[in-house]
Amino acid sequence: MLRTLLGEPPRENEGLIAEAVDAMVKTVQRVEGEIKRSQDPTHDYRKMEIWVRGLISSIDELEQSAFAAGFFRNKVKTDFIDDMDPVEKSDYARYVYFYKDGFIRLFSLLDKLGCVLDDFFELHTEKVKPHYSYFTVLRQFPYLKVHTDLGQELDEIREAYKEPISVLRKRRNTEIHFMNMEMQDDLWQRHQTLHGKIELEDLDRYMKDLWLGYEMACKSLIAVFSYINRLFEEKRAKS
After folding, report:
1. What b/e readout covers 203-232, taking b as 16+ CB neighbours within 10 angstroms?
2. Which Pfam families match (predicted)?
């Protein structure tokens, strides 16, 4: 959708997003099969189907936001906000909007994935923390000693992307709970030089962090739904 608005051709799914979406589509198909077979009297499978379809939309929206942020970042050529003309200031503002939208969507996606993990594997994370995050859910696998292969794989992915995810999480928390993320950067610079011009943050580094967060999300989705699909296949083979 955003690519069309920006005059770009539609995305063709390939690489990580293609693998993630394919795994989730297979899960939806298996869940639909279970609904037809059992009529799903408790609506557990129907809930699972809705959650997975939501995650398919979430990874699509995250990728689009990251793409749009990069699109407008490439239009920003000036190092200082005070030196920008009105057009470039507008492009910078659009970059900031989609960049922030991207990291907010990233953690929204991860927390939705945490809900799926908690429910499907009956981890009861709410007993540990009523309002839990994806990262709280991950700690339940080794604590309960269940599905340890999946838990270890997800933890290895988390560890591999620990630095950019930590940076993005701090920016998300600042944006939601404290002040606008880009204004905090301005405040820091004001502390350094009271009368100097405000220099832009390292836009390329910020974009790299966002794309790494997107990669982490894709790999986590692939791990989770490939594992769930194997469980469905094993169940079907036994029946």
Report:
1. beebbebbbbbbbbbbbbbbbbbbbbbeeb
2. HEPN_Cthe2314
> How many domains is the chain built from?
1
Alpha-carbon gap, residue 203 to 180, rounded angstroms: 16
pLDDT in tens, 35-85: 998 887 889 999 999 999 999 999 999 999 999 999 999 999 998 888 999
- The domain of 78 spans 2-238
Alpha helices in the chain (DSSP H): 2-5, 15-38, 44-73, 86-120, 134-144, 148-160, 162-173, 181-192, 203-238
Distance CA 99, CA 204 (A): 11
- Alpha-helical segments (H) within 161-202: 162-173, 181-192
Asked if 17 and 217 touch (Cβ cutoff 8 Å), the reply is: no
